[in-house]
Amino acid sequence: xxxxxxxxxxxxxxxxxxxxxxxxxxxxxxxxxxxxxxxxxxxxxxxxxxxxxxxxxxxxxxxxxxxxxxxxxxxxxxxxxxxxxxxxxxxxxxxxxxxxxxxxxxxxxxxxxxxxxxxxxxxxxxxxxxxxxxxxxxxxxxxxxxxxxxxxxxxxxxxxxxxxxxxxxxxxxxxxxxxxxxxxxxxxxxxxxxxxxxxxxxxxxxxxxxxxxxxxxxxxxxxxxxxxxxxxxxxxxxxxxxxxxxxxxxxxxxxxxxxxxxxxxxxxxxxxxxxxxxxxxxxxxxxxxx
Length: 290
Prior knowledge:
Layout: E1 17-22, H1 28-39, E2 45-46, E3 51-52, E4 59-65, H2 74-85, E5 89-94, H3 98-104, E6 112-116, H4 129-134, H5 152-158, E7 164-170, H6 175-184, E8 187-190, H7 191-194, H8 197-211, E9 215-221, H9 243-250, E10 256-263, H10 273-289
Parallel strand pairs: 1-4, 1-5, 5-10, 6-7, 6-9, 7-8, 9-10
Antiparallel strand pairs: 2-3
Helix pairs in contact: 1-10, 2-3, 3-5, 9-10
C-alpha cells in the first residue's frame, strides 16, 4: 500500500473511521490504490456549504484483504465486526459489489440499507464474462453463479441482513427483479426520477423518512454516476446521476451511518476523473457519518 486513504495523521487508537480494501476482481488492486492516491489531492473544505467535510473524521487505513478463495471473504465480515466492536466506522474500498454482502453480515440485523447503483443486483443467479472479472480471485477458483456481483442484494435480502432498503439511481434491471423488489418492499428509485427537481425532492423525502432514527449502511457503486463523469466502471449505463444529486441524497440521510463502502471502480490508464469522483464521494459520506 503506497498511500493510506485520505491521511496518515491518526493512529488506530485515535481514529473513529477505519478504512480497508478488499481485493476482489481482476483490476481491484490498482483501482483501490487509485482511490487512495486521489484522496490526498482533494480539498476537504467544501466551498459551497462552507464547511470542512472531514472536520470530525479521523481516518486510519489498515490496508487490504486479499482473499485467495471465496471462503476467505469471511475475513471481510470479521474485519468489519472487529471495527464495530471498537466503536468505529468501517469504510470499505472494494472491487466488486459482492464484498458488500460480506460486510453486511457484520452489521446489526435492523440496519437500513441505502445503495447507490445503476443496477438492481437482485437476480437469483447470473454469470457472464464481466461478473467473472469482477469476482475473480484466481485461475483455479470458479466464480459462483448463485452469489456474485449481480445477485448479492437478492441473497442479502433472503438472508435477512437488513430491515429496509432503497436503491437509488437504478436504471438497469428486468421484470423479475422489479417484481422481487416490490414483493420485498425494496424501494427502487430510478436515475430518471432523480434527474428532475420534483423527483429528486420526492426521493429526499423518502430517504429522510426511511432512515430517520435508524442505523444505516451506505453502499456506493460508482456506476450510479453518469459515464460522462465516471467512465472507469465495469458496467457503464447511460443517463446516470451527477454529483449534485448524490450529495443532496447523502445529506438527506437522517439516521446513524454505521458502515459504508465504495465499490466497482475499474481503473483506466488514460483518465483519473473517476477515482477523484470516488474519493470526493467518500468525503461526502464521511461528513454525514462522523
